[in-house]
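Hi Y.,

Following your request, here is the sequence exactly as I used it, all 235 residues.
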Amino acid sequence: THQRAPQGTNPGEYSEDVKAALAAAIAEAQEAYNHQQITTHIANNAHAALTQALEAFSGAVNVATPINTTELEVLLDIIKNSVETGVRYTACYNDGYPLSAIETMTSALYTAKANLARAITQSDVDGIFSAILPKYTNFTSSWTEKEIECNTAIETVQDLALRVYPTLATSYITIDAVKEIRSIAIVSARGSVMAVEVPNAPQAIIDVANLAQGCYIVRVSCADGTVETQTIIKR
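Below is the corresponding structure, written out as tokens. Let me know if you'd prefer a different format.
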């Protein structure tokens, strides 16, 4: 009954005015029914009024306002990639993001994802975005990188399944695989995708001359669904 219908402003609830209007229509219909000199005309009018009130009540339930999570989801994906790439870089070169910064950012990322799963309103989503953005800004500003000497010797990584060379690159890198390469992505140490190639062949040559100096992840996706990664340094 309308008396048991939840009252409030949340989705699935009814406003106080809507419930009061239906209660008044029910009372008027009941009064007409109890009238000693009720006629068919009075009964029909009461029935029509009550039906109209019931239809208005049914359509007046509060519904959830659609929320836009795209911007937040994109930011969370960027943060995830930055953390994962930072972990690999730090493990290889013992610099990059401090371990404490990685742990703090990872914790904030998990919290943001959990809060997003519980978000009901656009205000909830906007609040999550506003809370994690400055944390990500602090995280990226904690990056430190050792200078690489020009004469640093780095051996070319050779693998039976994939070869990426030279790993100390200036102009071009060559990718050789034993199977067809579907796509190649060059990803910066901070998680930004700098270039994408779709060779659809077992070998590709990529121009890296315009990349800034630093460490990059070469992500190779093969036609059979496997993914291989190698690290290069652009000087």
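Helices lie at 16-34, 40-58, 70-93, 99-118, 122-141.

Thanks again,
Q.
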